[in-house]
Amino acid sequence: MAFFNHHHLEDRLVPTITFVRENIQVEVPVGDSVRYPALENDVPVYCGIFKFGNCHGNGLCGTDRVAVSPSTNTNPLSFMEKFWLRGDLKKNPNMRLACQVEVLGDVTVDTQCKQ
Ligand code: FES
After folding, report:
1. Does ligand 1 come within 6 angstroms of the Cβ of 99?
2. What does the CA dihedral 70, 72, 77, 81 come to, rounded to 10 degrees?
3. Does position 10 have pLDDT exceeding 60, yes or no?
4. How far apart are CA 45 and CA 5, in angstroms?
5. Whose CA is nearest to atom 1 of ligand 1?
6. pTM of this prediction?
7. Which helix (H) or strand (E) holds 13?
8. Architecture of domain 14-111
9. Cα–ligand 1 centroid distance for 2 (angstroms)
């Protein structure tokens, strides 16, 4: 009978998000966005009034801007990200929308709100 060690496999496939400014590390399922893990851990992705006026993760408001690296551990930029971030990307090619970026491996996230 074949024995398959699920636990060991899962251990290797669980990516870690490191929120640099907040000094918080979170393990997430492959393909998760940055938005929920951030909100769950009180990491600010919406700055100022956008805390209350955002689109709840649908890619429509463009306010949940964070820098995510390395890009090789994420999905390619979504259509909505190319639209909203067209200015930001010239200054920082790692800029993403927290609700659109999919985490495929270990990444670091730099939040952008002024404190
Ligand atoms: S939450 Fe509105 S674009 Fe991400």
Report:
1. yes
2. -10
3. no
4. 37
5. 57
6. 0.88
7. helix 6-13
8. Roll (3.10)
9. 45
- CB distance 57 to ligand 1 below 6 Å: yes
Exposed, middle or buried, 100 (CB in 10 Å: 0-12/13-18/19+)? Answer: buried
- For the stretch 11-42, pLDDT in tens is 567 999 999 999 999 999 999 999 999 999 99
Helix (H, G, I), strand (E, B) or coil at 16: strand
Q: How far is the CA of 62 from the centre of ligand 1 (A)?
A: 5
Calculate how far, in angstroms, residue 12's C-alpha sits from the geometric centre of ligand 1: 30
Domain positions in the chain are 14-111
Q: Decide whether any atom of ligand 1 lies within 6 Å of the 74 Cβ.
A: no
Give the pLDDT score at 74. Answer: 98
